[in-house]
Amino acid sequence: MRAKNENERIACRYMLWLFVLLLASAAASANDRPLSITGATMGTTYSVKIGTASPGLDPLSGVVTENGRSSIDVLHELIDERLAEIDQRMSTYKVDSEVTIFNSSKSEDWFPVSAETATVVNRALEISAQTNGAFDITVGPLVRLWNFGAGSKANPTVPTGTEIERTQSQTGYSNLDVRLEPPALRKRIPTLEIDLSGIGKGYAVDQIASLLETHRISDYLVEIGGEIRVSGQPAHRSGQANWSLGIEAPRSDTRSVSQVLALTNQAMASSGDYRNFFEVDGVRYSHTIDPRTGRPVQHQFAASTILASDCATADALATAILVMGPNAMEFCNSNGVPALLFERTADLRSISFNSHTSDVFPVDQLRSLSESTAPDFAHILAASIIVIGIAIVGMGIGVIFRNRCIKGSCGGMEGLTDEHGRPLCEGCSNPSPECTNDPTLQQQQPAN
């Protein structure tokens, strides 16, 4: 009898440890989430997520550390340093940035800049030519004329036709030259300015992606001010082959996700006219300025989401395609641009919209929010194992401390009675003595 009880206790302990291991495994699966680094840059915020697609491997093993610092702290510092370097060159807010100094100069001679700034300007001019001027980094004076950007007034007014024409004469991408070797910029008119905010954030995303890959990180998501680039996978769990990216609904009254796009090894950028605008005499004027007319766009297209292999291109095209409006889809289909456009279905105040996709947009990877947030079987199973595991561990600990094993009889029903006050465990084919409180039955229990 004593040997049997000892064997039962050993068996109980083995079962307890088995469930502890199962619980730990389930918890590890549930906590299998990308590492996250966040910060501020370029007047907005950034987020970097490092995927854990290789089970058992440290995704930061390629980051060299010293003096006891953690890999993630070192990587965070490297990211901040790289973003600060880009901002110092291309910011229009820093008085000593390359762009600010160039804008302040009235010289029409070649102005030396870094190779990085020249590269970004060169790409911007290529996209300007491709979009027939719908994207233009010299549009800054028109943006200010329409009371958007830095120094905007509380009660804006609509500029006159003469003011628009005069200001427009100070802009135009054809008035800007760039050379890559040696890197320099040149103005054709002395008052010309450039603003790289329509392509700079996308470029910065690409540079942080390159930084991660330098440190052998291939599973990542980089986001700066809503411009995104992803690579690899977020995690090794089933159903996590792609990153899930939310696409905002073009509504000015609230912030909500309209759809979710599953994406990997690609960049995504969006542009919209539904946040920054003003109204005069019932007419709405958006901050999205058409450089070709010098005026805010007035069509019914409210937002664009563009995919590309690099984020700088996606960033610039998102603006250009929103400017194009009704002609955008023809451009996208002719140039193989994956695009998702949102069009208002009624007047400018309407919160209803229709979506349109170009021929090469991956509609099979697009899901509604309800479909994307439905819990998958793996998550449900993991949660169930955790809950059940906690219960079993609790019972197991109690059994060990009381030096008894869990019995498979109806002993646990002794506190329950039927409508006549009789214990419910009387219906058990093998009632325990504790259930019936019958001394005779207790004596009849086999000794074995």
Question: Would you write up a description of this structure?
Answer:
The chain is α+β, with helices and mostly antiparallel strands. It folds into four domains: 2-25 and 391-444, no CATH class; 34-92 and 198-238, no CATH class; 103-187, Orthogonal Bundle (T-fold), CATH 1.10.3980; 242-374, T-fold (Roll). 37% of the residues lie in helices and 20% in strands. The protein has an eight-stranded antiparallel β-sheet with strand order 1-2-6-7-10-15-16-17. The chain has a three-stranded antiparallel β-sheet with strand order 3-5-4, with helices on one face. Strands 8-9-18 form a three-stranded antiparallel β-sheet. α4 (115-130) packs parallel to α8 (311-324) and α7 runs antiparallel to α8.
